[in-house]
Amino acid sequence: MYLKNDIQLFCEEMGWRIVLSNGYSLSKHLIAEFDLETLDENIAYLLKDNDKYDRIQIAVEFARKVKEEDRRRTSCALAENREQEKGHEEEIN
Q1: Tens of pLDDT along 13-50?
Q2: How much is the average pLDDT of 63-67?
Q3: Please, which of 31, 45, 55, 87 could form a disulfide with 18 given CB 3.0 to 4.6 Å?
Q4: Could you write out the DSSP letters of every residue in 6-56?
Q5: pLDDT tier at 62, thresholds 50, 70, 90
Q6: Per-residue confidence band for 65, with pLDDT thresholds at 50, 70 and 90
Q7: Could you give the CA distance from residue 29 to residue 62 in angstroms, rounded to a whole number?
Q8: How far apart are the C-alpha atoms of 78 and 72, rounded to whole Å?
Q9: Which residues contact 73 (CB under 8 A, 6 or more apart)?
């Protein structure tokens, strides 16, 4: 399964193998929230089902949280760009 930002999920015996690409990184909060096990130097993780979510539900919930995190990152980046542009305009005036 492919998620936004080229995150790949592969269903394996122990859980979902999450493979990151293109320099994408997961937040410490997301890693902790899903109790992700690092498999390969912050490039691959293992997402296991738990008492709250079965195998499919946890993949869906993880995808939802990644999407929320991406929205926050985009929002923060846009706000930062606006502040930089504002500062640049003040320097010009």
Answers
A1: 999 999 998 778 888 999 999 999 999 877 899 999 99
A2: 92
A3: 45
A4: GEEEEEETTEEEEE--TT----HHHHHHTTPEEEETTTEEEE---SS--HH
A5: very high
A6: very high
A7: 12
A8: 10
A9: none
Strand duo 44-47 + 15-19: pairing: antiparallel
Over the Cα atoms of the chain, what is R_g? 17
What percentage of the chain exceeds 90 in pLDDT? 51
> Residue 72: helix, strand or coil by DSSP?
helix
Q: Where are the domains of the chain?
A: 2-68
Long-range Cβ contact pairs of 24-28 (< 8 A, separation 24 or more): 26/66, 26/69, 27/69
How many of the other CB atoms lie within 10 Å of CB of 37?
A: 14
Q: Which of 67, 72, 61 is nearest to 7 (CA)?
A: 67
Residue 17 vs residue 89, higher pLDDT: 17
